[in-house]
Automatic annotation (TrEMBL):
SUPFAM superfamilies, per the entry: P-loop containing nucleoside triphosphate hydrolases
Domain Helicase ATP-binding residues, every copy: 209-375
One matching Pfam family: PriA_3primeBD
Signal peptide from the UniProt entry: none
InterPro entries (UniProt xref): DEAD/DEAH_box_helicase_dom, Helicase_ATP-bd, Helicase_C-like, P-loop_NTPase, PriA, PriA_3primeBD, PriA_3primeBD_sf, PriA_C
Lineage of source species: Bacteria, Pseudomonadati, Pseudomonadota, Alphaproteobacteria, Hyphomicrobiales
Annotated residues for binding of Zn(2+) 2: C445, C448, C463, C466
Gene: priA
Subunit organization: Component of the replication restart primosome.
Family annotation (PANTHER family): PRIMOSOMAL PROTEIN N
Reactions mediated catalytically: Couples ATP hydrolysis with the unwinding of duplex DNA by translocating in the 3'-5' direction; ATP + H2O = ADP + phosphate + H(+)
Name of this chain's protein: Replication restart protein PriA
GO terms for MF: 3'-5' DNA helicase activity; ATP binding; ATP hydrolysis activity; DNA binding; zinc ion binding
Any one of the GO BP annotations: DNA replication, synthesis of primer
Keyword flag NADP: no
Length: 728
C-alpha cells in the first residue's frame, strides 16, 4: 500500500482485485468527484462487462488512458483483517488471489426491496355482513396480536380471500411483520453446567485466554465423551460476556442438529448457522449481522472463516483432525490452519478440540507452540469402552458373510439386554465391485480409474468420484451371459442385508450419506437412534463421530484393516483416528460399552496401539516415523497435479515441468508418475510431489518454478495442492 496516499481521488488510480481466477489487481482511473479508499467495493468494466471488485491498493500514477471505475457500491468496505487473510491464503496456497477474494466478498446487496411478510391484526368493528368463515377468522384473531396472514388463514381454516375481505371491511388492519430474529443475543449464564473438577480447571484456562484477548492456540485434547463441547462452551460464554464474537468451525455443519440443540440448551438461543445451504436473503442478513457485530456466535462450515466479523474474540475448531476441513476444489486450503492464521491476524485465541488430534497439532503442542490442555477421563465416571480384536483368520465368517461368530454373539447379547449396537463399515453402497463370474469382466467408470459401486437400493452402479450412474444390467455386457454378475466385497447395504438375515426381529437402519430423503431425514434418523428407536445401526463414517447415542453399548468394526493399505502417508493416522472415534460411540450413557474390531492383521501397530488404550504410544511411534521420513510436520509437502484431455498431453507437460524443477538444496521433486486416480472425470492426471525441509520456503520455490517452467497449453491444467491431505 502506498504510504502517502490513503484515498484515490478523481484523476488518480486504484488497483482493483476482481473475485475471479486472476492473481493480479488491475489498475483503473478514478473518475472526477469520486474518492476511493482501500477496501471499497466498486464496479469496474472488465472486457465487455461490468463486474464487482475491491480496491486493493491506491495507485501512485495518473489515470491517463486507463479504464475508469464505474461506481462505488453502497456497502461497507472489506475489513483490513479480511484483506490480510485473503493475501495470506493466496500466498500460502498459491491460489489466484481473486479466487480467494471470492470466498470473502459479500455480493452487492440485492436492490429489489425485500417484500415484508404481511400480518393482520383485529383493529375495527365486525363487518356488516357476517359469515361463518368470517366469524372463525375474527375469533382466531382475538387478543389483538399481529398474526401472519397465512398463519391466521390456516388457524381459522379459511381462505386468504376471507381475510382480505375483512381487511377491506376495516375489521382487520394490515401491517408488515417484524423480521425473523437472526441474531438474538445468547445468554452466557442461561444454563451453566456443573463442571467436574478437571473440566472446571480446563474451562477456566480457556476463559482466561479469551479474556487475555491475544493470539494463542490451545489444543483441547479430551477422550470421547469427556465433555470437550461443554468445556469450550465456557470459553464462548466468556466471549459473550465481553461482548465479543465467537466462531465455532465444524467439519459437517449440516449434520449437527445435536450440536445446535446443545447450544440452545446452554445459551437459550441458536447460534448463527453458516453453510452452503443458507442462501438468499437469509445469507445476506446473517452476513450483515456478523459485520455489524450483532451475531455473537457463528457455527459454520469452513467457509465461515471468511466472514466479515466485526470483533472476533474466539475461534473454536471442533474435531480439528477432520479431513473435511481441507477444501480440495478451487482454492485448496485447510480451514484449521487458516483458522489459526485468522486468529493471529485478529489477535484472538484459537481452540483446537479433538479426541484424536492430528499429528501436526500434537507436535505443535509438544514443542510448546500451542498450549496443551487435556481431559483424560470421560464425564461422570464413565469408562472408555473395552476394546477387543477378532482375528478373522481364525473366526472366519462363511462365504458372502462379513460378521464373525464372536461379533454375532456380542450383538445377540446386546439385543437380549435391549441395548444398541453399531456396525461400522466405511463403504457406501452394496458392493465396491461387480464382476462377471463367467468372463471376469469388471464394471469400471468410463470417466475415472475407479470401479463402479453397486448401489442396490438405487438399482444403479455409481462412480463415487464423478457421479457417473448406470443401470445394473441383467447380463454381462462383455460375454452376454445372463445372470452372471456377482457382487464382490461388502458395503453397508450388503451388511444390512446380513443383519436382517441374522437378526430378523431387530429394528435396524443403514446410515450413510446416500440416505434417501437428504440431510433433513438423516438428522431425524440420527435423533431417533439417540432416542433408542433402533437396535442395530449399520453405518459409514457418518455415524462415527460427534454423535451422542446414550443407549449404544457395542460397536463392531467390520474391517479394521480398511484404509491401512492405501499407501497414503496419513493412512495410519487416519485409521487410528476413525477407529478411536467410532469405538468412542460406545458406553456414553449409563451402561459401560465395548468394541470389537475385526482384522486379518491383529499385530498391526495401529491396532495394538488402539487396544493398549494408550494413544501416546501411537503418537510417539507415528511421530518418529514421520520425522525419519521427513514428512509433515517435519518437512513440507506439495502435490502438483497435471491434467489434460489425453494421457500424452498431461505426461509431456508434467515431464517438461519436472525438467525445469531445478531443485535447490533441501528440495526434492518426485515424479512425474500417474496419479493414483489416473483418470478423473475424463481427465488424465500425472502427479509431481515436492518435498522440502521444514526451513525451506516452499511457496517461494513453487512460485519461481512455475514462473520459469513451461506454461500449460491447450487442455492442460496444473493444480497446486500445498499440504495435500488426500493422496488420490
Ligand atoms: N459437566 C457436565 N455436566 C453434565 N453433562 C455433561 C458434562 N460434561 C459432559 N456432559 C455430557 O457428557 C456427554 C459427552 O460430552 P461431550 O459431547 O461434550 O464430549 P466430547 O468430549 O465432545 O465427546 P466426543 O469427542 O465423543 O464428541 C454429553 O452428553 C454431555 O452433555
Ligand atoms: Zn467416475
Amino acid at each position: 500500500m502506498s504510504d502517502e496516499q490513503t484515498s484515490g481521488e478523481g484523476g488518480g488510480t486504484v488497483d482493483v482485485l476482481i473475485p475471479l481466477g486472476l492473481d493480479q489487481a488491475y489498475s483503473y482511473a478514478v473518475p472526477p468527484g469520486l474518492s476511493l479508499k482501500v477496501g471499497d467495493v466498486v464496479q469496474v468494466p472488465l472486457g465487455p462487462r461490468e463486474t464487482v471488485g475491491v480496491v486493493w491498493e491506491i495507485g501512485s500514477g495518473r489515470g491517463g488512458n486507463l479504464k475508469r471505475v464505474s461506481g462505488l457500491y453502497d456497502m461497507p468496505p472489506l475489513d483490513p483483517a479480511l484483506m490480510k487473510l485473503v493475501d495470506w491464503v493466496a500466498w500460502y496456497t498459491l491460489a489466484a488471489k481473486g479466487s480467494v477474494l471470492a470466498l470473502a466478498l459479500r455480493r452487492p446487496p440485492d436492490d429489489t426491496p425485500e417484500r415484508p411478510k404481511l400480518g393482520v391484526r383485529l383493529a375495527g368493528a365486525p363487518p356488516a355482513r357476517m359469515t361463518p368463515a368470517r366469524a372463525r377468522a375474527i375469533t382466531a384473531a382475538e387478543g389483538g396480536l399481529l398474526i401472519a396472514k397465512s398463519a391466521l388463514a390456516e388457524a381459522a381454516s379459511v381462505s386468504a380471500a376471507v381475510i382480505d375481505s375483512l381487511v377491506d371491511a376495516g375489521t382487520f388492519s394490515i401491517e408488515p411483520m417484524p423480521r425473523e430474529q437472526i441474531a438474538t443475543a445468547p445468554d452466557p449464564d442461561y444454563a451453566k453446567p456443573e463442571l467436574s473438577e478437571g473440566q472446571a480447571e480446563v474451562a477456566a484456562a480457556l476463559a482466561a485466554s479469551v479474556k487475555a484477548a491475544a493470539y494463542n492456540v490451545t489444543l483441547l485434547e479430551g477422550v470421547t465423551g469427556s465433555g470437550k463441547t461443554e468445556v469450550y462452551f465456557e470459553a464462548v460464554a466468556e466471549a459473550i460476556r465481553l461482548g465479543r464474537q465467537s466462531l465455532i468451525l465444524m467439519p459437517e455443519i449440516a449434520l449437527t442438529a445435536q450440536f445446535i440443540d446443545r447450544f440452545e440448551a446452554r445459551f437459550g438461543v441458536k447460534p448463527g448457522l453458516w453453510h452452503s445451504a443458507v442462501t438468499g436473503r437469509k445469507r445476506e442478513r446473517l452476513q450483515a449481522a456478523i459485520a455489524g457485530g450483532e451475531a455473537k456466535v457463528v457455527a459454520g462450515a469452513r467457509s465461515a472463516l471468511f466472514l466479515p466479523y466485526k470483533d472476533l474474540g474466539l475461534i473454536v475448531v471442533d474435531e480439528e483432525h477432520e479431513a473435511a476441513y481441507k477444501q480440495e476444489d478451487g482454492v485448496s486450503y485447510h480451514a484449521r490452519d487458516m483458522a489459526v492464521v485468522r486468529g493471529k491476524i485478529e489477535s484472538a485465541p484459537v481452540i483446537l478440540a479433538s479426541a484424536t488430534p492430528s499429528l501436526e497439532t500434537r507436535v505443535n503442542a509438544e514443542r510448546g507452540r500451542y498450549t496443551h490442555l487435556k481431559l483424560p477421563e470421560r464425564f461422570g465416571g464413565r469408562e472408555l469402552p473395552g476394546l477387543g480384536l477378532v482375528d478373522l483368520r481364525r473366526d472366519k465368517p462363511e462365504r458372502g458373510r462379513w460378521i464373525s461368530g464372536a461379533l454375532v454373539k456380542a450383538i445377540e447379547t446386546n439385543l437380549e439386554a435391549k441395548e444398541q449396537s453399531l456396525l461400522f463399515l466405511n463403504r457406501r453402497g452394496y458392493a465396491p465391485l461387480t464382476l462377471c463370474r463367467d468372463c471376469g469382466h469388471r464394471f469400471q467408470c468410463p470417466n475415472c480409474t475407479a470401479w463402479l459401486v453397486d448401489h442396490r437400493f438405487r438399482r444403479a452402479l455409481v462412480c463415487h468420484h464423478c457421479g457417473h450412474v448406470e443401470r445394473r444390467p441383467h447380463e454381462c455386457p462383455a460375454c452376454h451371459t445372463p445372470e452372471s454378475l456377482t457382487a464382490c466385497g461388502p458395503g453397508v447395504e450388503r451388511l444390512a442385508e446380513e443383519v436382517a438375515t441374522l437378526f430378523p426381529q431387530a429394528r435396524s437402519i443403514v446410515l450413510s450419506s446416500d440416505f434417501p430423503g437428504g440431510t433433513e431425514r438423516l438428522k431425524q434418523e440420527l435423533m431417533a437412534v439417540a432416542q433408542g428407536e433402533f437396535d442395530i445401526v449399520v453405518g459409514t463414517q457418518l455415524v462415527a463421530k460427534g454423535h451422542n447415542f446414550p443407549g449404544m453399548t457395542l460397536v463392531g468394526v467390520i474391517d479394521a484393516d480398511l484404509g491401512l493399505t492405501s499407501g497414503d502417508p496419513r493412512a495410519a493416522e487416519r485409521t487410528f483416528q476413525v477407529l478411536r472415534q467410532v469405538t468412542g460411540r460406545a458406553g456414553r450413557g449409563e451402561k459401560p460399552g465395548r468394541a470389537l474390531l475385526q482384522t486379518h492383521d491383529p499385530s498391526h501397530p495401529v491396532l495394538t496401539a488402539l487396544i493398549s488404550g494408550d494413544p501416546e504410544r501411537f503418537y510417539a511411534a507415528e511421530t518418529a516415523a514421520r520425522e525419519a521420513a521427513g514428512l509433515p510436520p517435519f518437512g513440507r509437502l506439495a502435490a502438483l497435479i497435471v491434467s489434460g484431455n489425453t494421457q500424452a498431453e498431461a505426461e509431456s507437460h508434467a515431464r517438461a515441468l519436472a525438467r525445469s524443477a531445478d531443485a535447490p538444496a533441501g528440495v526434492m521433486v518426485l515424479g512425474p508418475a500417474e496419479a493414483p486416480l489416473a483418470v478423473l472425470r475424463g481427465r488424465h492426471r500425472m502427479r509431481l510431489i515436492v518435498k522440502t525441509a521444514r526451513e525451506v520456503n516452499l511457496q517461494d520455490y513453487l512460485r519461481s518454478w512455475l514462473k520459469r517452467g513451461p506454461k500449460p497449453k491447450g487442455s492442460v491444467r496444473v493444480q497446486v495442492d500445498v499440504d495435500p491431505q488426500s493422496f488420490l
